[in-house]
Specification:
The protein has 455 residues and is α+β, with helices and mostly antiparallel strands. The protein is built from 10 helices and 15 strands. InterPro entries: GAF, GAF-like_dom_sf.
Amino acid sequence: MLYEVFIPSVEADGFDESITVDAENWMAALKSGLERTGEGSDIMRNLMCDIKDDNSIHVTDAVSRRVFVLRELEDDAESAADGGEEVETVMTPAVNADAAEAKAAEEAKRAAEAKAAEDAKRAAEAKAAEDAKRAAEAKAAEEAKRASEQKAAEEARLAAEAKAAEVAKRVAEAKAAEEAKRAAEAKAAEEAKRAAEAKAAEEAKLAAEAKAAKEAKLAAEQKAAEEQADKHIYEAEDKRIRIGSATHSALKKSDQPAARIVSESRTKSDVNRTVDFGRADEKVSESLIEDIFLEIQDIHEGDKSMQEVIDFVMDMAMEKIGAESGSVLFADVNGQELYFAAARGPKAADIMDFRVPMGMGIVGFCTREGVSLAISDAENDPRFYKEISESLGYDTHGLLCAPIQHEGRVYGAIEVMNKKASGGFSADETNALAYIGRQLAQYVHGEIMRNEKIS
């Protein structure tokens, strides 16, 4: 591309130059022209370009205010033989400088106005863009502010609600804790009250039981002391005979039912009627009691031992009454049983190992009640203690029993069985055996008293 490059003179009295340059573009053409004039290309850093209606290019140096004019030429000239660019330099006298300068000034003015308009346009666009930017930023800031305020308000609301919920929760928890505390205190108080009442009741019960036990103990001790005071115990030196004693009241069972009147009737008394309490066929020696009275004094005056006295009395009863068998029984030291101290008859040796519970059988009944009994048919009597007779194989028909008692104190009983003569035991024989029992009891009582004085 061929360009005509007009380069104004730097100095006022210098020469302007017009150079034709074959270049790719006007910038390369201007650069080549400046290098041709020796100015170099440094001035191209601050240039203003303006394309005119005739397609000429006016380039103004912002520093020196020089205006370079470039025009495109038709490409009809041939290049040099070496292929290099052909440059035509046209020298214009300085007299044309004013016109060129005026023209350049006009062009520069126009270029400046165009540039100013462009700058104004750009400034307006920039301002509009800046205003739009600021408006957008302001709007964004406002929206951000509103969003922030809304967010802050929402967060404040949520925080307030959370705080209110937390406060309500704490109040509810405090209330629940207080109610639980009161309930626990009430429960503890109730339990403590119940425990105290239970403890008081238990202590009262224990105190009552202790008092009752103490009173029972004192009563038992007192009763035992009274019973001990009432008991007289004899024990032989050889320990073979131990005789216990007790009053009739002590021998009575506490569970023994008291007698009661079932029926009662009255009839007119017949003063002329007589009652015969004896047996028609009784033939007992009138001297029986007298003989026993005289002979039995020997136990009180002699120096016989307890066993010798018992044997003496047993033999006397067997002889005077005329019985087949007989025995002397004493109460043990506890007063619960009767044991055999002497026995006579076919089963005498075997019967010594037996014991009779106090109150059982005819002998136990006579001992406990302190009465004498004469029974003609003993085996059919409900009070008869059959175990001994059945164990020994001995038949008991008639039986006479008397207690060994002295001044209301019972030591045992003496009995004889199966009278040798025909018939049953008579009233005189009953009285005789009762007398023998009383004399033996008197002897035992005396021995007990003597031993107590010695001890």
